[in-house]
Amino acid sequence: MRAINLVKTIICIAMTVCAINNMQAQNGYKNPVIRGFNPDPSICRVNDDFYLVTSSFEYFPGLPIYHSKDLVNWQQIGHCLTRDSQLPLHKAPASAGLYAPSLRYHEGLFYVICTNVSGGGNFYCTATDPAGPWSEPTWVDINSIDPDIFWDDDGRTYFVTQGDEGIRVAEIDIKTGKIVAPERLVWGGIGGRFPEAPHIYKKDGYYYLMLGEGGTEYMHSVTIGRSKNLYGPYESCPLNPILTHANRRGQANRIQGVGHGDMVQAGDGSWWMVFLGFRVTHQFAYYHVLGRETFLAPVDWPAGGWPQVNGNGTVSLRMDVPTLPLQPFEAAPVRTEFNEETLGFEWQYLRNPVRENYSLTEKKGYLRITASPITLNEADAVSMVCRRQTEHDFMAATFLEFNPLKDNEEAGMTLLQNNTHHYDLLFKKSGEQRVVQLRVRVGSLSYTVAEKAVDGDKVLLKIEGTANEYAFYFSDTGKEEYRLLGKQDTRYLSTEVAGGFTGVMIGLYASSNGQPSNAKAYFNWFDYLPKES
Fold this sequence. Notes:
Elements (H helix, E strand, L loop, with lengths): L1 H24 L1 E4 L11 E5 L2 E5 L5 E2 L1 E7 L6 E7 L16 E9 L2 E8 L4 E7 L10 E3 L4 E7 L5 E7 L2 E7 L6 E9 L8 E8 L2 E8 L7 E7 L7 E2 L6 E2 L10 E11 L5 E9 L13 E8 L7 E2 L8 E5 L12 E2 L11 E3 L7 E2 L7 E4 L13 E5 L4 E10 L7 E9 L2 E10 L2 E10 L2 E10 L3 E8 L3 E7 L7 E7 L5 H4 L6 E7 L8 E12 L2
Antiparallel strand pairs: 1-24, 2-3, 3-5, 4-26, 5-6, 7-8, 8-9, 9-10, 11-12, 12-13, 13-14, 15-16, 16-17, 17-18, 17-19, 20-21, 21-22, 22-23, 25-39, 26-29, 27-28, 28-39, 29-38, 30-35, 30-39, 31-32, 31-38, 32-33, 33-34, 35-36, 36-37
Protein name: Non-reducing end alpha-L-arabinofuranosidase BoGH43A
Keywords: Glycosidase, Hydrolase, Signal
Pfam families: GH43_C2 (PF17851), Glyco_hydro_43 (PF04616)
């Protein structure tokens, strides 16, 4: 009997320790929850699963879709727009294309509602599985951006959008996208510039209309109003703005520009907000290169009351708050071997790709990129695949085989903010020799920073990043014996210098600089090692 009691005691102690450890594990998380260029998040829940979409602008495929069980750990499961017929991006300027999607679930269908500012305007696509495939777009003849769809209790469907003077609502036929009742201006917000990003929630007999104000820069914020009638008038929340860092509480925060949010209720009844923000390189150093990212905060929303975000309307990089039971995903590998027949979801093209310029099967274990006459300086479909820079501190490297026969043929790596702001680490022919170059494009300035002659047709290229600078390395020995080629300030790839709405992308590319070419670049592997800050 004593032995049995001892066993029971040990089991009870073990269960208590596990429970304590589990409670500790659920207390706190790191922001941002989706790192690197992922702005304008919109979220929905279906049973115990959360799904989220973000803006993708001129990159293809369009509109990445993420999945989570706990709101903290996210994994990309696909894209909404994967076919050229869904997403015409030819000649889309930098930071054009797809703006501010919304993601909703209604009667067995997922809906992504978005705007292609480079062709077509407002649309929505549907799917029974958020991983896809998604339908062709249903177009809505309303000239605006930042659309959402709201279904009222009586079954009517409303299209909610941004207008110059405020938020507008129009009833539509969800089967056709046709307008049933004309648009009506319902609320202008609290007076901030650029009232946008509208989402409507029906709760406790009220229509709550949440929007972003102040512009998607340092004065950004989230505000909310409510009304007993969908068309208003809307009463402004006395706590407005309910989220902002454009005040004394937020002035020293490493996170700036918070706004453009969406809310979701978890299965346990708790409310949460996902929203965009950006990490500046240093405290009070107002430069950011990673783009706008997706952040998470708890929301206290009592019955009949107003939502309050994280107690005081600010957030931090480390959030010491209770969470849902955490269910992390397996960490992504550092090395991409290019052994599969398709690229992973993290890889993107710049605009609609010329598909014959790429192959993962021509040479086993290699990504082949055929040089295009289009250069990195053009707003066009350059031959390049790229992925997001997700941390200030990182290492990226690749092994390149390339046999340039003409001086105009080049291949290599690039850090690309847009077609007028990029740093290129490249391999090319120059006269009778082959060289690696570090080349810079900043606005109207373009010049070669450094150049070194190399032997053979194989080089290793590496870029290391910190908050202050990028360092560029190469090796032509076949081993990872890197030599420093040069360094560049991160500031000139920041949004504050380059403008636009995206973040730095790390690309593998090949170009023949305006002339026809059949030159082929073969990339054997790609390493990406982010170091969380």
